[in-house]
Write a structure and sequence with these properties.
Elements (H helix, E strand, L loop, with lengths): L30 H22 L8 H8 L1 E2 L5 E2 L7 H9 L27
Length: 121
Amino acid sequence: MLFTTLVVADETRIPTPSISKGEGEQCVEPTDVMRRDHMNFLMHQRDATVHQGVRTTKHSLTGCVDCHVQQDAEGKAIPVNAPGQFCESCHQYAAVSLDCFECHATTPDSASAAVSASAIP
């Protein structure tokens, strides 16, 4: 009789993206909820704003950028879609397109608040 052994990979050996913690005490939703549903929140926020004129900040993309942006050694904001940064690292890991920043700012109080630097020719 032949027996085979099933080897289960150690969960700590699975590479995961390295993401920074936001600046606030806690996110607007629990971490597991945000990981799973952030796109739904952003789309709902977009629909409420564009179609109904309702502007709230709880699930706004601007709020996400404001909280999760990091600064370089000189204190300048690093775009959240730059390699290794908050949004880009998870989207790269999950092989999901990150197209929000084709129109939206990647840093707080950007000189071009509606367009990211990467979208400017």
